[in-house]
Every structure is written in structure tokens, then in C-alpha cells.
Amino acid sequence: MNDAQPRPSETDTPDRPESLGGHRGSDTPVLTREIPPPIDMVTLLGPRDELLRTMERQFPLVDTHVRGNEMTFTGPAGELEIIDTLVDELLVIVETGQPLNRDAVERSISMLRSQTLERPADVLTMNIVSSRGRTIRPKTLNQKRYVDAIDQHTIVFGIGPAGTGKTYLAMAKAVAALQAKQVNRIILTRPAVEAGERLGFLPGTLNDKIDPYLRPLYDALHDMVSPETIPKLMAAGTIEVAPLAYMRGRSLNDAFIILDEAQNTSSEQMKMFLTRLGFGSKMVVTGDITQVDLPGGTRSGLKIVRDILGDVEDIHFAELTSHDVVRHRLVSAIVDAYERDDTRAQKRARRAAADGGGATGRRAAKSATRHTSSSVAPQVAHEDPA
Predict the structure, then answer these.
(1) Whose CA is closest to 124, among 98, 150, 147?
(2) Quick check: 121 and 93 in contact, CB under 8 A?
(3) DSSP characters for 250-296?
């Protein structure tokens, strides 16, 4: 809690704890942190102490007090060690000029609890590309590892649920590579497969027909490149957005190539795309294997590519999870709920096969398998994960 007035027990205690391991008349460890004067406490605690309340929710066993520029935490030693490191990390973030928010605090705590080697400040202050006053950066540990993998490997597969920034971060890396003249062009592609509904014959020219399928790529591109510049870059061939079918027969040199919605490629299409790789190029393949919209019986190329290429040097598979969702908070809960439902369906299928036997058991198992393979997490409007 944030006490404006001292508690009676505090006024009766003349000695203030100064460091981790101090005591306030008991065996309970106490941590006291004095925030350097250049740091505005409002920046660290948030408007109306929002960030302080976030910390209190994340550390329910710790009693928190703030007076002036001094923060005192009383609770289990293990929790205080995490808080001590957390305050250091938050101060580094503030000193870089990046504003703190509830999401940054929660993600920093999550990283510290996972005891990874990466520092939260290094993750949350990593700049990929800046445009029109906005900076795009990873927001989770797995996102940073994904971005690092793009730097270190020629072909990277980004696999994870909706909202984890797979395509958005890949697009940011492509724009950064173009700006740094590491590549001469950006090629964005995705298969033209409808998401569970048949749209029929679309009116207009060929470009009009394929535009709805490519719209998510245009949306991300407009966030990173000046809108008035995009038509000029596309006219010059510096940026190309095209359906996957247009990739056949091409050799793509000195390009940053992104294949989006790769779960909707067949095995043959995946092989065709990957073999377009030319000299001086980099490829990023993104997709969500839980949202396959291919017609029944068609195997997803993204589902089987790891078994084929998992041991090939300079190819990396990056896994993102519901913990990396950076859209609305409900998206993470939705993804988890669908995963639990899929798990239950698979268990029902195994039970039916074991208990029912014969034709009845096989029918139940096939029904549960169809349920699992067709479950589709609700699509959520595009939101900037940076």
C-alpha cells in the first residue's frame, strides 16, 4: 500500500531499515530503496500510483510503503530479492527515456521470476525501428529471442498464437534492414486462403481480388513506413506485396522475404517458397498451427516443416506462446482456453479409442480429432505490439 501517513507502529520505531535483511522489531526481512533525486517518483510509481499497485498485486506477501523518494518492502527474503532487482531494472528503463506502464512492470516481474539470463531492461529498451515518433521494440523475452534469431539466421520460423507479434516484428526487422541497406527490397507474401468462410467471386481487377488477403501486411507496413512513401516504393519494386502463388519460378536475391499465415500452405507450397531463397537474402516464415484453414485432408506445410528441416544449419524455429500475446489482455485468455479445450478433446479421443474399441471408438476418436484440428481462436483486430 502507499501510506500518506505513518502507521502507529512506525512512529514508535525510531530506527529505519536501510537494506535487505534489516528488521523492524521482528524476524521479517526488510528492503529499503532510496530512489535517486533525478528520478521523478511519479514516473516510477505511475499516475495515481498505478504501477505501485501493480507491484503490490504481483507480490501479495510483501508489505509496501512509500515516503518521499524512499520505498520500503517487508516480506519473504526471496520476494525482496526479486523486488530489489526489479527496481534496478525499472530505473534503467526510466533513464533511457522510455515511459513505464503496467504492461512493462508485469512483464519485467515475469522475466525475473523465470530466472533467465536476459535482463528485462535489455528486452524492453531494444529498439528495432522508429517511424513518425513511434519506436517498435519487443515486449517479451520470447519476442526478443525471436528478433535476435532473425539477426543471427538466414531462415527463421516464427510459430505462435494470434497477437504474439510474429508478423509485426518480422516486418519491423525488414524495414530496419532496408533502411540500413542490408537488403535492396522487401517481399511480403501470404497464401490466399479464406478463414473458414467462402467469399465467392470477388469483383474488380486481379489486384482488387487479392487485396483482402494481403490487407494485414499493408496495415503493418503503414505503421512503419510513411504512407505517402509506400506507393513510390511499391512502384519501384523496393516493396512488393503478393500472394504466394506469384513466388513460383523466382529467385529472390538481396531481399528480406516474409511469408505470413504459413499454416495455410501445403507441404509442396512450403518447399516451393523456401527454395526461392537467393544470395544475400533473409526469410522469415510466420504462422499459427492452431488456425489452419486448408480444406480437409490437406496437410499444413508449417506443421511438418520442423520434422524436415529441424537439423538444418542456419534455420531457426522460434516458439511464441500465450504469454507473448501483446494485444488485448483477453486474447491471451482466449488462446489458453482454446488450448485447454483442444487438450480435453484429445483426452476424450484417447479414452473413446481405449474404452469403446471397434467402430464406435474409432468414430468418437475421429470426431474429437476433427474438433481439435478445426478449432480456431477468434481473430482480433490488429493492434500495435510495440
Answers:
(1) 98
(2) yes
(3) --B-SEEEEE-SGGGSBHHHHHHHHTTB-TT-EEEEEE-TT---SPT
CA gap 356, 296 in Å, rounded: 26
* pLDDT confidence of residue 23: 46
pLDDT of residue 58: 94
DSSP string, 160-183: --TTS-HHHHHHHHHHHHHHTTS-
Measure Cα distances from 95 to 98, 100, 187 in Å: 7, 11, 37
Q: What is the mean pLDDT of the chain?
A: 82
Q: Residue for cell digits 523492524? A: 24
DSSP letter at 131 equals E
Supply φ then ψ for residue 303, to 5 degrees: -70, -30
Q: Is residue 8 pLDDT above 50, yes or no? A: no
- Top mean-pLDDT range of 90-94, 119-123, 255-259, 346-350: 255-259
Residue with cell 528485462: 120
Split at pLDDT 50, 70, 90, the class of 202 is low
Question: What is the enclosing helix (H) or strand (E) of 112?
Answer: helix 102-113
Whose CA is closest to 183, among 280, 112, 271, 65? 280
Is residue 333 within 8 Å of 171, Cβ to Cβ? Answer: no
Edge-to-edge strand list for the sheet holding 29-34: 22-23, 29-34, 70-74, 63-67
Lowest-confidence segment of 257-266, 335-344, 357-366 by average pLDDT: 357-366
Between CA 183 and CA 192 the distance in angstroms is: 26
| Torsional sign, CA 230, 232, 235, 238 | negative
- Sort 56 into a burial class: Cβ within 10 Å, 0-12 / 13-18 / 19+: middle
Q: Which three cell numbers stand for residue 44?
A: 516510477
Mean pLDDT on 313-318 = 96
Residues in the chain: 386
Residue type, position 86, single letter: L
Other CB atoms within 10 A of residue 28 CB: 15
Average pLDDT in the 127-149 region? 87
135: helix, strand or coil: strand
Q: Of 257, 242, 232, which Cα lies nearest the Cα of 177?
A: 257
Q: What separation, in Å, do the N-terminal and C-terminal C-alpha atoms of the chain show?
A: 30
Cα gap 142→136, rounded to integer Å: 15
